[in-house]
Amino acid sequence: MDDQASLSKLSPNANAESERIMRDKLTSRMQQLKTEFQTGQDKLLDLDLQQSRLRETLLRISGAIQVLEEMLQAAKPDEQLAPQGSPPAERSSVGQG
After folding, report:
1. 4-15: per-residue pLDDT in tens?
2. Of 10, 42, 61, 91, which one has the fewest beta carbons inside 10 Å?
3. What CA–CA distance (Å, rounded) separates 47 from 38?
4. How far is CA 41 from CA 28, 48, 94, in A?
5. How far apart are CA 91 and CA 4, in angstroms?
């Protein structure tokens, strides 16, 4: 009986120590997860910024393409007026200046 009494007295202390260890492990893991979460949030913000900048760049490129296409379209009627195989007529300086 003395051994059982001794074990019952040790058991509450052992239980408390076991709970403390478990709580420490859980707290440590929670901190790791919070750190990983913040790292992920920061990366997501960075990627959103990169996406925004890329969209702006693509929009500028698209606008430049459109301008060049319009300039080429505007030049086509001049080419159609010139006889086949000859360069477009140059502007005359008569009446200018």
Report:
1. 555 455 577 889
2. 91
3. 14
4. 20, 11, 69
5. 116
